[in-house]
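DM from R.C. (forwarded with permission)

"hey, sorry to bug you on a friday — could you get me a structure for this? deadline for the figure draft is monday and I only need the backbone to look sensible"
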Amino acid sequence: MLSVVWKEQFKRNNLIVFAVIFILLQTLYAMFDILSFGSLSAMIGELGGGLFAVHITLNILMATMTSIMVSLSQIKLKLTKSEPRGATSIPVISFIFALLTFGCAPCVVAFLAAVGIAFTPIVLPMGNLMWKVALLAFIALSMIYILYSIDKGACKIKPEKMQT
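My reply, with the result:
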């Protein structure tokens, strides 16, 4: 099943969906970074070029992996009319964790205040790099689970939905 879904990923419409999701996530991650430091130049000045490059690389990896998960789940849903188990809950948890990861104090405070939790977010060294690494690990585990769920899914593809 995974091989069929993966082949579908490279069709034009599915690549467009992937690209749109990637651009949205990468923009969101960049905005979180900029908000946490005030500006891009302040971020480079405070972290240095090397650590800045690590942050950007992690942002790209997280956006790519999340876009793949969402895109493959959407393709499976289109082919079988059933989502992989956990396909909707894992991205929501990842997004909430991402809000806490980037150190965007206004974002975190507003989110936590909305759910009734009031505290000041802890700012970790190196621009919250440890949180980003933890988020990347969580996304990787989520991706493994989604790929396994797609591959071992019980639903079969409807013959009229398969395109050659």
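R.C.: lifesaver. The chain has one domain: 2-154.
me: no worries. Helices lie at 2-9, 12-37, 40-47, 49-80, 89-101, 105-114, 125-151.
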